[in-house]
């Protein structure tokens, strides 16, 4: 084995995995991503093992609990959402940056039930995942303030509105699943028309949810 190949081998518990163990780990991760995407986080490790075509003992050697497997898959996904928010903040058009972020994130959760449950339902909690989800709120606040400062976004919109909007769009995607799964894009257009500021807009009569209420609904636990 060359020095280069040793450096690129997956590491577990501080030690590089053997080639066969590394292949099994990647097979398990790939299978878990597929079943979590299609069926959500309620599936068992036995189900993942069958989908990966490995023994369940092999799964438990690599991931002793389902929570460990979920963490391995979704911590990176949540950090990718932060990268998407950073890209949206860098867009020269504040409104288009916000639109791109909403469209990209909704596409992800519409197609991936597991990511939806982790990101918006608090279906899995761990220190790193809770931190990654909680870290999204400052990005949302910055996107909204920037779009409001440009005069494009209604002044009543708050960061806590965004997770609620994403729930609505995910529900639209699920409602039409198997028939027209991308219909959520139509309702995103409807919502964007409502979010965009116009001179003759009446003020919204109902206040938004507080950040604390939304975080509780998402399962985000802040340290005392």
UniProtKB/TrEMBL annotation:
InterPro entries to which the protein is assigned, alphabetical: DNA-bd_HTH_TetR-type_CS, Homeodomain-like_sf, HTH-type_TetR-like_transc_reg, HTH_TetR, Tet_transcr_reg_TetR-rel_C_sf, TetR_SbtR-like_C
Which controlled-vocabulary keywords does the entry list? DNA-binding, Transcription, Transcription regulation
Q: Which domain of life is it from?
A: Bacteria
- State if tRNA-binding is listed as a keyword: no
Annotated region (Disordered) at 1-20
Q: Which residues form the HTH tetR-type domain?
A: 22-81
Q: Does the keyword Protein biosynthesis apply?
A: no
Q: Which residues bind DNA?
A: 44-63
Known Gene3D superfamilies for this protein?
A: Tetracycline Repressor, domain 2
One Pfam family assigned to this protein is TetR_N
Q: What is this protein called?
A: TetR/AcrR family transcriptional regulator
Q: Which organism is it from?
A: Streptomyces yaizuensis
């Amino acid at each position: 084995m060359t020095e280069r190949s040793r450096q690129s081998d997956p590491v577990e518990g501080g030690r590089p995995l053997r080639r066969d163990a590394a292949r099994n780990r990647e097979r398990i991760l790939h299978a878990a991503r597929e079943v979590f995407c299609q069926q959500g986080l309620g599936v068992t490790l036995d189900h993942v093992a069958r989908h990966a075509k490995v023994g369940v003992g092999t799964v438990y050697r690599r991931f002793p609990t389902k929570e460990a497997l979920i963490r391995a898959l979704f911590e990176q996904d949540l950090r990718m959402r932060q990268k998407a928010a950073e890209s949206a903040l860098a867009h020269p058009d504040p409104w288009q940056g916000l639109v791109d972020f909403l469209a990209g994130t909704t596409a992800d959760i519409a197609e991936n039930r597991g990511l939806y449950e982790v990101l918006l339902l608090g279906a899995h909690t761990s220190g790193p995942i809770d931190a990654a989800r909680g870290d999204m709120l400052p990005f949302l606040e910055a996107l909204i303030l920037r779009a409001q400062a440009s005069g494009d976004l209604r002044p009543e919109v708050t960061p806590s509105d965004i997770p609620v909007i994403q729930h609505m769009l995910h529900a639209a995607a699920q409602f039409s699943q198997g028939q027209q799964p991308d219909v959520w894009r139509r309702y995103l257009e409807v919502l964007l028309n409502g979010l965009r500021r116009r001179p003759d807009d009446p003020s919204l009569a109902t206040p938004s949810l507080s950040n604390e209420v939304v975080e509780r609904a998402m399962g985000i636990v802040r340290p005392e």
